[in-house]
């Protein structure tokens, strides 16, 4: 797997997202098209742009990672509460 520095490629906002994903057990690779692919056994892969124009893109991707973890951790993806 590539180092965080290689995945960031000058996009400082991505470092926090990548560090968060790695700390939560996600793997991160750069696709041939330049996007980031987050993967974890038992969860669907999540793709995000590496050059997001929206300042909320990193927050949205982080929310997707948390949501995927939450859905994978409950039986049949049901939400309780």
In short:
The chain has 3 helices and 3 strands, in the order ααβββα.
Ordered list of secondary-structure elements with their pairings:
Layout (H helix, E strand, L loop, with lengths): L3 H5 L3 H12 L3 E4 L5 E4 L6 E3 L8 H17 L8
In percent terms, what proportion of residues is strand?
Answer: 5-15%
- Would you state the CATH class? Alpha Beta
Number of helices: 3
Shape, please? globular
- Please write the string of helix (H) and strand (E) elements: HHEEEH
> The CATH topology is what?
Rec A Protein, domain 2
Q: Tell me about the largest β-sheet.
A: 3 strands, antiparallel
Distance between the termini: 37 Å
Strand order of the largest sheet: 1-2-3
Question: What would you say this structure looks like, in words?
Answer:
The protein is an alpha+beta fold. The protein starts with a helix and ends in an 8-residue tail after the last helix. It has a single domain (4-73), classed as Rec A Protein, domain 2. The protein has 3 helices and 3 strands.
Name some characteristics of this structure.
3-stranded antiparallel sheet; 3 strands; globular; 81 residues; alpha+beta; Rec A Protein, domain 2; 3 helices
């Amino acid at each position: 797997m590539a180092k965080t520095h290689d995945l960031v490629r000058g996009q400082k906002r991505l470092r926090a997202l990548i560090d968060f994903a790695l700390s939560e057990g996600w793997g991160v690779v750069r696709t041939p098209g330049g996007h980031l692919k987050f993967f974890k056994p038992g969860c669907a892969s999540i793709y995000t742009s590496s050059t997001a124009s929206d300042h909320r893109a990193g927050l949205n991707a982080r929310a997707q990672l948390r949501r995927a973890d939450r859905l994978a951790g409950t039986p049949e993806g049901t939400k309780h509460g």
